What does this fold into?
Amino acid sequence: MTQPTQPVELDSTIHCPACGSTHTERMPEDSCQIVYTCPDCGTVLHPKAGDCCVFCSYGSVPCPPIQIERQAGA
It folds into this structure.
């Protein structure tokens, strides 16, 4: 895997589309998280079409593998 040129952000704030709540979560560094349950309303989130994980769909920061891929210019 290519080394990132900038530090990878590991925290992302997920916005629940069902209830509007936000929660800052620590992302896995080497994988994508495909399921997230909102702690406030219990809605189970899955990635939107074309996204690899819930952080890329609902987070303030995309997952670490995508951050690294973008830094590499892929």
